[in-house]
Automatic annotation (TrEMBL):
This protein's record includes keyword Signal: no
Cellular location(s): Cytoplasm
This protein's name: Cytidine monophosphate-N-acetylneuraminic acid hydroxylase
GO-annotated biological processes: CMP-N-acetylneuraminate metabolic process; N-acetylneuraminate metabolic process
Keyword Manganese carried by entry: no
Function as written in the Swiss-Prot or TrEMBL entry: Sialic acids are components of carbohydrate chains of glycoconjugates and are involved in cell-cell recognition and cell-pathogen interactions. Catalyzes the conversion of CMP-N-acetylneuraminic acid (CMP-Neu5Ac) into its hydroxylated derivative CMP-N-glycolylneuraminic acid (CMP-Neu5Gc), a sialic acid abundantly expressed at the surface of many cells.
Family in the record: Belongs to the CMP-Neu5Ac hydroxylase family.
EC number: 1.14.18.2
């Protein structure tokens, strides 16, 4: 069940010249026209081709579109799906380890799909594959059909109007943060402008414009796509809230609330709005926006369409399959992530196949696949202009030198050049403070005033970061009273609520170099019965060893934070046997932990009471 959502009330603020924003209200699909579900024919097989399908798995390609499909035949029964892994869009091939001929293996991360059931078997307990409808035609040929719900953005369609020069301007600030001027309104996406993300693992690559705080204070609304700290930056929002606490902020109605940790963050924001997916939110007569969910991580990831005078701007942010892969075509401006490297895999893994050579080749291959995928997506959607963003971070802390050197990211210019080879899409590689004038670019992409670069001499890349205040917050947890008592381990994992799963994990607290921390904890957790054995159990079981920097793991434990700070923030080193990704385990600790932290005050009180009773006895 979704947790409680922050309310949205208006208060006066520190910018008296600007009245609080009042939306005109949502536009509900069906208010002015009815939208119908559509059926799309993805593949036609002739009678001879249909008769030639073998028992078991068949890989089939639509030669006219280049799209790939999988058909599974068992006697007269057929099942079908797209040949696309639901995890990150990889291509399936035959699984040579499957002796029964029912599973296929993804070429990206070795995920396995049982096409006889359309359930993923590696990792176990993860996703189900979306099925296609299989129909016979009159001549005994086969049709593969996809049933598409109506596109929500097609409700109340509006024809594009002419834009005056300067009427719509898009200014890049840093990472995923864009400042949009839309007539007399201003909208900002995902402001991360100071401090780290993911505990201490990510830092800004670009130097934000010096007036970033003044810019934020003047906007009419902020959209925050999801709860990851490179998009929901509490250090940035704290600075903003000190100046304008009631700035309107809009988020999607995700299962885990975007602002689930607001009360404990110390940031005083009073005007947060949680809006439903797929419904136009009307800002004024000319401006509206619609938030859409991700098809792979609907519980946390979102993307947005902004429309001004009929001109659409699509921001897919970090979504793996935004809106389940159904997106508007021929928008005026599209922006998306591109860089890769936003994961601890494989840099933080060791043992088995995870040699330095294997990791380097994997990263090189993965980045190339991502580039090709993004280029293909842009080619399919045919936006007028495309901008790669949301990938401008660096592992700048000296202790993460190894990650910085090995976690190679894609070059935005390389992606843009690939796009231009295969399409007529205009591309824009943004630099901090650069502004794109949409009206000019739509009229003439060669207009020298279409994109205004920052003034000569403007600092583009950061060369120093203020580590001290943020590391001080993390280090404060190391000596917390909680960790004087070994029983915190049982208290924490009982609170976490993950059990009845055959996995044994060894947790080791470490120093900066991932060597055991003097006096730190080294313990086992058996998640089958949530016990804490001294030795690994004798039964057959998967095993993981997780080494975590002591300041980060204790900060996470103390505050009941999600483990993204550890994993995506590169603050762990991992080994696993066998080499299987345990989706249920990681998904729980990265997304599904309780919304309120452990009650450490009660824990310490009970501990003191127990000690008193023992001493009296």
């Amino acid at each position: 069940m979704p947790g409680p959502r922050p309310g949205g009330t208006s208060f006066s603020h520190a910018v008296p010249s600007q009245a609080p924003l009042e939306l005109l209200g949502p536009f509900l699909p069906g208010m002015e026209q009815s939208l119908e579900q559509t059926t799309e024919i993805l593949l036609c097989l002739s009678p001879a081709e249909a008769a030639g399908l073998k028992e078991g798995i068949n890989f089939v390609r639509n030669k006219s579109t280049g799209k790939d499909y999988i058909l599974y035949k068992k006697q007269s029964h057929l099942r079908a799906c797209k040949n696309m892994c639901k995890h990150q869009g990889g291509l399936f091939i035959k699984d040579i380890e499957d002796l029964d001929g029912r599973s296929v293996r993804c070429t990206k991360h070795n995920w396995k799909l049982d096409v006889s059931t359309m359930k993923y078997i590696n990792p176990p307990g993860s996703f189900c594959q979306d099925e296609l409808v299989v129909e016979k035609d009159k001549e005994n040929g086969l049709l593969l059909l996809e049933l598409n719900p109506p596109n929500p953005w097609d409700s109340d369609p509006r024809s594009p109007e002419d834009l005056a020069f300067g009427e719509v301007q898009v200014t890049y600030l840093t990472h995923a943060c864009m400042d949009l001027k839309l007539g007399d309104k201003r909208v900002v996406f995902d402001p991360w402008l100071i401090g780290p993300a993911f505990a201490r693992g990510w830092w800004l690559l670009h130097e934000p414009p010096s007036d970033w705080l003044e810019r934020l204070c003047q906007v009419d609304l902020i959209y925050i796509s999801h709860m990851h700290s490179d998009h929901l930056s509490y250090p940035t929002l704290k600075k903003l809230a000190e100046r304008r606490s009631n700035i309107p902020i809009y988020v999607g109605n995700t299962e885990r609330p975007v602002f689930w940790n607001l009360n404990r963050s110390g940031v005083q924001l009073t005007n947060i709005h949680v809006v439903p997916f797929g419904i136009w939110q009307q800002v004024d007569r000319n401006l509206r926006f619609m938030i859409l969910m991700d098809g792979v991580h609907p519980e946390m990831d979102t993307c947005i369409i902004v429309e001004y005078k009929g001109h659409k701007i699509l921001n897919t942010v970090d979504c793996t399959r935004p809106n389940g892969g159904r997106l508007p075509m021929k928008v005026d401006l599209m922006m998306s992530d591109f860089a890769g490297g936003a994961s601890g895999f494989p840099m933080t893994f060791s043992g088995g196949k995870f040699t330095e050579e294997w990791k380097a080749q994997f990263i090189k291959t993965e980045r190339k696949k991502l580039l090709n995928y993004k280029a293909r997506l842009v080619k399919d959607l045919q936006p007028r202009i495309y901008c790669p963003f949301a990938g401008y971070f660096v592992e700048s802390h000296p202790s993460d030198k190894y990650i910085k050197e090995t976690n190679i990211k894609n070059d935005p210019d390389e992606l843009n050049n690939l796009i231009k080879k295969n399409s007529d899409v205009v591309t824009w590689t943004p630099r901090p403070g650069a502004t794109l004038d949409l009206g000019r670019m739509l009229k003439d992409p060669t207009d020298s005033k279409g994109i205004i670069e920052p003034p000569e001499g403007t600092k583009i890349y950061k060369d120093s970061w203020d580590f001290g205040p943020y590391l001080k917050i993390l280090n404060a947890a190391v000596g917390d009273e909680i960790f004087l008592h070994a029983s915190w381990i049982k208290e924490y994992f009982t609170w976490a609520g993950f059990k009845d799963y055959n996995l044994v994990v060894r947790m080791i607290e470490t120093d900066e170099d991932f060597n055991p921390f003097p006096g730190g904890y080294d313990y086992l957790v058996d998640f089958l019965d949530l016990s804490f054995p001294k030795e690994r159990p004798s039964r057959e079981h998967p095993y993981e060893e997780i080494r975590s920097r002591v300041d980060v793991i204790r900060h996470v434990v103390k505050n009941g934070l999600l483990w993204d700070d550890l994993y995506i923030g590169f603050q762990t080193r991992l080994q696993r046997d066998p080499d299987i990704y345990h989706h249920l385990f990681w998904n729980h600790f990265q997304i599904k932990l309780p919304l309120t932290p452990p009650n450490w005050k009660s824990f310490l009180t009970c501990y003191e009471q127990s000690r008193a009773e023992i001493s009296q006895g």
